[in-house]
Amino acid sequence: MHPKALLEATADLVGLVLKFDHPADQVVSRFFRDHREFGPRERATLAETVYTVLRKKLLFDHLSPSGSGSKERRMAILGFHGPRDFLKSALNDTEKRWLDNCDAVKPDDLLERHRHNLPEWLVAPLKAQLGDGFWPMVESLQQPAPLDLRVNAFTDKRAEVKAELAKAAIKSVVTPFSPWGLRIDGKPALTKLDAFVRGAIEVQDEGSQLLALLLDAKRGEMVVDFCAGAGGKTLAIGATMRNTGRLYAFDTSAHRLDALKPRLARSKLSNVHPAAIAHERDDRIKRLAGKIDRVLVDAPCSGLGTLRRNPDLKWRQSAKSVAELTAKQTAILQSAARLVKSGGRLVYATCSVLPEENEAIAEAFAAANPDFVPMDAAELLQALKVEGAETLCAGGEDGRRYLRLWPHRHATDGFFAAVWNRK
């Protein structure tokens, strides 16, 4: 495709995404559906440019004050994902000079906000938690996330799937913590592979796999995935149960549960029962109260642990939206807890890095529910033979109480989990 045409299309897409009306991945998908003329290479350029702009928005805003062409075009030029000479062949002389000046700017000469590219409300809580780790964390958020796969432990063995992928020229390494994970560089087309078609692999971040591992559901149990969404964790849990017992996948969005159905069919699991519920106090929940062995509450959250994948979230969330979420999280956890039978396990999890969505919710719940005894996440993971279990945990008297994953420390998305046992 001609460089000028590609740059114009990229600027159009950048403009659509920066409206922040919808999640960036949805805007990009719709754009590709409306523009069938782009091949895989052009799509990669378009998508990666948009994500670079979202990651470095404050810096690019700063470098592109009003000048020739539109703001969107200047942002697209700064974030352009492709060879420099290809890009420059699409620029006029003024733009080339401006771009050379931008390239000459040294990071040390920039204001802090143009280096971290985070909204102010998010900076303070991250610095308070991370101290010296703040800048390594920022650095990790500027990089795209790797692609993690979970091998279906019910049907396949990780080493065999790894060898099978290698035959298809897809190199993978085993994930350091999850016993089911394989990590891949790049974005190969997986959906055509036999391993994908027959349900041997699913795309799932290693951190998300560890949440399913921590629930530790056993054969023949009654288990609930309370906010199942599209069911990534549900499928991992069903495999740990060896397709026995009953696993309920609840969600308030029937649309999200629909996305689980084809994945469920591939997985060969018949013990999973998806069910749309009206709200966290639905009658179905009343009927199951006190009967469930294990409940996972992967609560709706700000998603700020996934900024490597969804950099638009830092601009679409706010302190106010987080406050609304914490009220919801508190109510959902309290309702889900009623399902747990005595001696049963409850896991509360988010993909957020903010203490008010994580430790604060867990501590308030523990204070209000003395019959739920906090369990030591590090101890549980050690019992599950997870290497370096202690390094994955934080909080409590000895820094072992909660699972606390960070992109810069663990190469996973940011995740939190708290675990209780009902007396």
From TrEMBL:
UniProt cross-references to InterPro entries, sorted A to Z: MeTrfase_RsmB-F_NOP2_cat (IPR049560), MeTrfase_RsmB-F_NOP2_dom (IPR001678), RCMT (IPR023267), RsmB-like_ferredoxin (IPR054728), SAM-dependent_MTases_sf (IPR029063)
Class of enzymatic activity (EC top level): transferase
Single biological process term from Gene Ontology: RNA methylation
Entry EC number(s): 2.1.1.176
Keyword Transferase carried by entry: yes
UniProt xrefs under Pfam families: Methyltr_RsmB-F (PF01189), RsmF-B_ferredox (PF22458)
Domain SAM-dependent MTase RsmB/NOP-type: 137-423
KW Ribosomal protein (keyword) present: no
Keywords noted in UniProt: Methyltransferase, RNA-binding, S-adenosyl-L-methionine, Transferase
Binding site for S-adenosyl-L-methionine: D251, D298
Gene Ontology terms, MF aspect: RNA binding; RNA methyltransferase activity
Enzyme active site: C351
SUPFAM superfamilies, sorted: S-adenosyl-L-methionine-dependent methyltransferases
Classification via PANTHER family: NOP2 YEAST -RELATED NOL1/NOP2/FMU SUN DOMAIN-CONTAINING, RIBOSOMAL RNA SMALL SUBUNIT METHYLTRANSFERASE B-RELATED
Stated family: Belongs to the class I-like SAM-binding methyltransferase superfamily. RsmB/NOP family.
Entry protein name: 16S rRNA (Cytosine967-C5)-methyltransferase
Organism: Variovorax boronicumulans
